[in-house]
Amino acid sequence: NAGVMQNPRHLVRRRGQEARLRCSPMKGHSHVYWYRQLPEEGLKFMVYLQKENIIDESGMPKERFSAEFPKEGPSILRIQQVVRGDSAAYFCASSQAGGVGQETQYFGPGTRLLVL
Amino acid sequence: RKEVEQDPGPFNVPEGATVAFNCTYSNSASQSFFWYRQDCRKEPKLLMSVYSSGNEDGRFTAQLNRASQYISLLIRDSKLSDSATYLCVVNRGGGGNKLTFGTGTQLKVEL
């Protein structure tokens, strides 16, 4: 009964380094979403992907952030040249499909990124 | 104006009380609605979907009023374990399937 898996659960980086966050969706789910929760704030949508496709990246910062969901393997959220303001909890969610009735999203445990 | 608005609380209630949370959304084209709960900033967990006809799951009842763009959650006979932050969530649909979260309403159930 594997749910959405994320690793690492905690990640510490120094300013200027790269952070790579991984997400494996629930079994049978082909849609992946990334959300960010800054301290004392609500969750904010970042990007929506299907296998080998970015469907909606309207919430992604224009620079330093990228996401992929390859044909094989987990989805990756990559943050280059991290800054202190990137410190947050990054949650991944997955859904069976995108249409009404199948779009319910289930969340992974999150990756807490701390930039020193 | 925020796309999804909730009273942040906290709501401090005694065990056994009935408590109601409200939420309003601004985009009339929104298609799906949910309540999630989040404990101590862990991952959000789906509590229930919300339909115009209303739906009930044990002690929890959710209602949607599309005309007023208003969503509610009622918790009866509250338990200590209900203490959490309750997130009102809206899916705009249209193929984007992007969830928009309210900032959450904090509930503390006390002895």
Task: Please tell me about this protein's structure.
The complex is a heterodimer of chains A (116) and B (111). In chain A, 0% of the residues lie in helices and 48% in strands. Chain A has no helices and eleven strands. Chain A has strands at residues 5-7, 10-13, 19-24, 31-37, 43-50, 53-56, 65-68, 75-79, 88-95, 106-107, 111-115. In chain B, strand 4 (32-38) and strand 5 (45-50) form a beta hairpin. At the A-B interface, strand 4, strand 5, strand 9 and strand 10 of A face strand 5 and strand 10 of B.
Offer a concise description of the structure:
The complex is a heterodimer of chains A (116) and B (111). The model of chain A has no long low-confidence stretch (mean pLDDT 93).
Topology:
The complex is a heterodimer of chains A (116) and B (111).
Chain A: E1 5-7, E2 10-13, E3 19-24, E4 31-37, E5 43-50, E6 53-56, E7 65-68, E8 75-79, E9 88-95, E10 106-107, E11 111-115
Parallel strand pairs in A: 2-11
Antiparallel strand pairs in A: 1-3, 3-8, 4-5, 4-9, 5-6, 7-8, 9-10, 9-11
Chain B: E1 4-6, E2 11-14, E3 19-25, E4 32-38, E5 45-50, E6 55-57, E7 60-65, E8 70-75, E9 84-91, E10 99-101, E11 105-110
Parallel strand pairs in B: 2-11
Antiparallel strand pairs in B: 1-3, 3-8, 4-5, 4-9, 6-7, 7-8, 9-10, 9-11
